């Protein structure tokens, strides 16, 4: 079986972007591949050094992963910091990554702009740690959203660089989405992507209650509608259609598309429909996650079992790495 690896940072509540960019793929992949899915707690320290809420967020991410359909018996579901081998591989890979190329990473440049007071070395080497996470299991497929595309390119570069310098140990990891193209779920205000830690009022979280979902959807940016038949759709309207395609029936989508093209669309009605379809999609996940999140004994068992599976695979890779690098002295 080919190997799959991915992770989500415990930086807040999971949202529709995490679901449609990542989790939906995880759930399908668990029946086809050998899967490693982690809560990326070490990665969260690059931007969230305060750990007061970390435990709660780790529990939440685990619970939401399971509520979305991930089966801890089929996959290794674990915490990044429980797999110590990650840190060792990260160290070796840091010697193969050049500061110049890391400084050019788009996400790094964004973070420098957003938080100039906390440009730490961990932030710069984020793509190196992410490469370590992935190739530690010699994974070939990495289900992620579009925002991770460049990181995956870097992971391929670092894996290949290791192979060229020390011998073939790692397969090339590739970003993966069942639809082909990687997904980017836009925020409701049309300014960027949905996110755990930015754009909170324009992001739909899997923990949002029904009224909050309705409120957020009704606030999504629209205008007074097209005045000419078959007009070009503005980005923010296209975003609403994109969200509709995720949760609404084909009939509903066809109706509003025809209304748009015929200039009879009423965005208030469209958003009401979208809000109800969102509520129906999110409510069962929210309720299931809530009952898992508060069962600490169960979560502990999951984490222990996941770490054991992940470390078995990690140890085997580290052995290969040390041998390839000539770090075996007796
Ligand atoms: P943060 O705001 O803390 O950076 P995030 O919401 O961007 O968090 P990550 O933990 O960085 O989430 O990413 C987890 C997974 O969800 C990744 O595979 C990422 O590509 C995917 N993802 C995050 N946001 C979106 C989005 N808006 N659309 C599609 N995929 C997304």
Automatic annotation (TrEMBL):
Residues that hold L-tryptophan according to the record: 133
Motif ('HIGH' region): 10-18
Source taxon at top rank: Bacteria
Broad class of the protein's primary localization: cytoplasm
Keywords from the UniProt entry: Aminoacyl-tRNA synthetase, ATP-binding, Cytoplasm, Ligase, Nucleotide-binding, Protein biosynthesis
Annotated motif 'KMSKS' region, positions: 193-197
Chain positions recorded as ATP binding sites: 9-11, 17-18, 145-147, 185, 193-197
Classification via HAMAP family: Trp_tRNA_synth_B (MF_00140_B)
The name this protein goes by in its record: Tryptophan--tRNA ligase
């Amino acid at each position: 079986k080919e190997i799959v690896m991915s992770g989500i940072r415990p930086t807040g509540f999971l949202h529709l972007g995490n679901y449609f960019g990542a989790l939906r793929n995880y759930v399908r992949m668990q029946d086809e591949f050998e899967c490693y899915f982690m809560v990326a707690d070490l990665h969260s320290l690059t931007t969230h050094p305060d750990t007061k809420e970390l435990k709660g967020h780790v529990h939440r991410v685990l619970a939401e992963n399971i509520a979305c359909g991930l089966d801890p018996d089929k996959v290794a579901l674990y915490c990044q910091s429980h797999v110590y081998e990650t840190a060792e591989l990260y160290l070796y890979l840091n010697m193969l990554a050049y500061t110049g190329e890391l400084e050019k990473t788009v996400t790094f440049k964004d973070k420098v702009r957003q938080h100039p007071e906390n440009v730490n070395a961990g932030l710069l080497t984020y793509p190196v740690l992410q490469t370590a996470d992935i190739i530690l299991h010699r994974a070939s497929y990495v289900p992620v959203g579009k925002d991770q595309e460049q990181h995956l390119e870097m992971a391929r570069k670092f894996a290949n660089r290791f192979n060229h310098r020390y011998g073939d140990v790692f397969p090339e990891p590739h970003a993966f989405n069942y639809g082909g193209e990687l997904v980017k779920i836009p925020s409701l205000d049309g300014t960027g992507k949905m996110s755990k830690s930015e754009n909170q009022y324009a992001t739909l979280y899997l923990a949002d209650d029904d009224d909050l979902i309705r409120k957020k959807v009704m606030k999504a940016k629209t205008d007074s509608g097209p005045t000419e038949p078959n007009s070009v759709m503005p980005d923010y309207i296209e975003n609403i259609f994109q969200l509709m395609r995720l949760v609404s029936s084909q009939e509903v989508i066809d109706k509003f598309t025809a209304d748009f093209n015929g200039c009879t669309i009423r965005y208030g009605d469209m958003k009401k429909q979208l809000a109800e379809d969102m509520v129906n999609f999110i409510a069962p996940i929210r309720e299931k996650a809530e009952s898992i999140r508060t069962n600490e004994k169960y979560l502990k068992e999951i984490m222990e079992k996941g770490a054991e599976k992940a470390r078995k695979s990690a140890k085997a890779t580290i052995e290969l790495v040390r041998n390839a690098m000539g770090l075996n002295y007796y």
